[in-house]
Specification:
221 residues; alpha+beta; four-stranded mixed beta sheet; 4 strands; 52% helix; 8% strand; globular
Length: 221
């Protein structure tokens, strides 16, 4: 049995779920609150971050380690192109969103609206939210540019770049904070990605006490 320890508001966890679904893998989910990890989880991953992959008595932890492991161990469904320059481009986009978007948007919007609520029982800070929404505009413009330039974000075929970006956007979209009509190319690209079978379970995610936006699970927006 393959076990994925995750949380639905972790974009890294969502990315790994999408990758495993694209690779037709069977797996079981175990949800852990990232702000209150159990001792059991800390023992198998002292780093204290999600997701964590557990199988056959083995543990693979860390966003990039799991991503590379899944790509190398399941080569029949490739999500990295053969061309080395295109591979570098896929990894560059992944890093942009796992690092830059995460620090400039996720930590300002999702952390304020969700994590702060559950971890500290506090209301979000409006100034921080405003800063996050301003940062979001820059990133949406960039996605719009990438989607206009290529069939997918890093080329003609779907790749890890698309799954990474979609995983991050899906959480912000759950909260209803993306003005999709202002970004035509990004909207068409995201509709294409979230219509894939691999996205089906992601669109069923429900955060306790916080209902999804009206268009979150709507494949046609």
């Amino acid at each position: 049995m393959v076990l994925l320890v995750h949380h639905s508001i972790s974009p890294q966890s969502r990315k790994i779920r999408l990758i495993m679904a694209e690779k037709k893998m069977l797996f079981v989910l175990k949800e852990e609150e990232p702000w209150k990890l159990s001792q059991e989880i800390l023992e198998i991953n002292p780093g204290g971050d999600l997701p964590i992959l557990v199988f056959d008595g083995k543990v693979v932890s860390g966003n990039y380690a799991i991503t590379e492991y899944l790509e190398e161990s399941n080569p029949q469904y490739k999500l990295l192109p053969e061309d080395l320059i295109l591979r570098a481009e896929v990894r560059r986009i992944m890093d942009w969103f796992d690092t830059k978007f995460y620090n400039e948007v996720y930590k300002y919007i999702v952390a304020e609206k969700i994590i702060k609520r559950f971890q500290f029982k506090q209301a979000p800070n409006s100034k921080i939210l405003k800063a996050g929404l301003n940062n979001l505009k820059f990133h949406m413009e960039y996605i719009d540019y990438l989607a206009d330039r290529n069939n997918y974000l890093a080329g003609k075929e779907i790749s890890l770049a698309d799954l990474t970006v979609a995983a991050h956007l899906s959480i912000v979209d759950y909260l209803g904070d993306i003005p999709w009509n202002e970004y035509k190319n990004a909207k068409l690209w995201y509709a294409k990605i979230k219509s894939r079978p691999s996205f089906k379970e992601i669109l069923k995610d429900n955060i306790r006490g916080i209902p999804p936006s009206s268009n979150y699970a709507n494949l046609d927006f």
